[in-house]
Design a protein that fits this description.
The complex is a heterodimer of chains A (393) and B (165).
Chain A lengths: L8 H5 L4 H10 L5 E2 L11 H12 L12 H12 L11 E4 L1 H13 L5 E6 L5 H7 L3 E6 L10 H7 L4 E7 L11 H14 L2 E5 L24 E6 L12 E4 L2 H14 L5 H13 L1 H25 L11 E2 L10 H12 L1 E2 L1 E2 L11 E4 L4 H19 L6
Parallel strand pairs in A: 1-10, 3-4, 3-5, 5-6, 6-7
Antiparallel strand pairs in A: 2-8, 7-8, 9-12, 11-12
Helix pairs in contact in A: 3-10, 4-10, 5-6, 5-9, 11-13
Chain B lengths: L2 H12 L5 H8 L3 H13 L20 E9 L8 H8 L4 E6 L6 E7 L2 H12 L5 E8 L5 E2 L2 E2 L16
Helix pairs in contact in B: 2-3
Classes of the chains: A alpha/beta (393), B alpha+beta (165).
Amino acid sequence: MDFTKVISDKARTIKPSGIRKFFDLANQMEGVVSLGVGEPDFATPWKIREAAIYSIEKGRTFYTANRGLISLRQEISKYYQKYGVTYDPNKEITVTVGGSEGIDIAVRALLNPGEEMIILDPGYVAYEPSVLLAGGIPVRIELEEKDEFRLTPEKLKAAITPNTKVMLINYPSNPTGGFMTKEDYAKIVPIIKESGIIVISDEIYCELSYEKEFCTLASFPEIRDQIVIVNGFSKGYAMTGWRLGYVLANPIISGAMTKIHQYIIMSAPTGAQYGALEGLRSCDNEVEQMRQSYLARRNYITKAFNDMGLKTFLPQGAFYVFPCIRSTGLTSEEFCEALLNDQKVACVPGNAFGEAGEGFIRVSYAYSLEELKIAAEKIALFLKNLEAGKVKI
Amino acid sequence: MLEKDKLLLGVLRNNARMEVKDLAAVLGSSEEDVSARMKHLEEAQVICGYHTVINYEESNDEQVTALIQVNAQPEREYGYDRIASHIYKFDEVETMYLIAGSSDLLCIVKGETMQQVAQFVASKVACIAGVTGTTTTFILKTYKNSGVILEKDEDGVENRLVVSQ
């Protein structure tokens, strides 16, 4: 039997992630120095792990409410108050299986087949498939390095059509490290209000903001109800493997998302919820320590790339830098493959995040300074070899 | 404290051997600036040394560590400080605290043998004027020192995917 014929059109036509391709390449190789991961190098703080272990010992192994533990939702509500917006734990908060589920249920709750959804390019690899799976039409806004990959009012205005229903933004950004300040957002708020579009704001990297203060679009009262916040514990709390996130939205949108969530998930893993609860209650210091480490590494790696002659802006958030490699004359994929073959250093080609990422590479600095130093030396050596014509393309 | 000093201390705390050139990159400033900051922090006794965390259980050196709790009679004008200075000046005393609780001072003392440590307590510490009693506790095993876990532990072993989203 030809099983390819039983696969649905949607599943068949969706493209595999460009990152996956590169993973397979790097994974076959021994002794790879990787700058390719999208997760913290820190293990989850012990307080969180210990609280989750305790919950299991106590037999708290049952489903929770669909929306998640009420105590956790109350803490999430408190947490967002520090960013200037309040959500009702009973009607506006749902705990999800990672930010990923949050994106999926938000898109599915909002988008009808044939409606347009704006996504940012370069952007995280899962956004476009989530639009396609919902039957929507992805419309890309190409961000530019000269704007440090921020969303400008001009670009937003030009992308909105009468058929635009939703926009998905992600600041601090994976893959660029781009960041929107309160002032940056203030310029697009009137456009969002006037157009009536719903904005899904993926704020998973909010804890990893550096010199500038993190701002959520939902803190602008005039558009608060047009915003769906997706967040989680993976990055700031170093809890990627626990798969725990949440969505915040007005009661109607939140109710629709929760309906989908209750059928596809039931409730997020209970042990993970107890862990996250402890994280919100008592891990501010641990989170701050990690943030400080990323800040030091960001400074180091940004300077290293600029010193090598690969122009790199100083990102204000997340744990990625996005060096421009156009000066080498190579495409992003050629650059990354040649670097992997020549020096066994793995980075991710920028075009894996959309066409606007062509000419760039994504470099993760979720590594110790010692590891970053070794990797930077190898990349510098690669560039020398490249210039001397010693690298096969 | 200044933001850059905080960053500098955070990095040095984990790796005191980092070169000034690399520290400058981390701080986003010049090597001269880093050297000046370090000098200033040393003079202000914020940085009090650049020591190595040694796991003596893995080295071949025999070493004994003991915690000595000391009870003392405080003195008018000086409190415990003068008595403390008589104790902490001995090289055997590695660390010393004034504490609240059942005793007044706590010393961490190193020696080659238990006997040597016991001898030091009896002949040097216990007979200092003002010291009214001592309790010696010997360390059997060090699990963690200065924030560094000395046990072989799988925690933190790199097991991330090589490349991920």
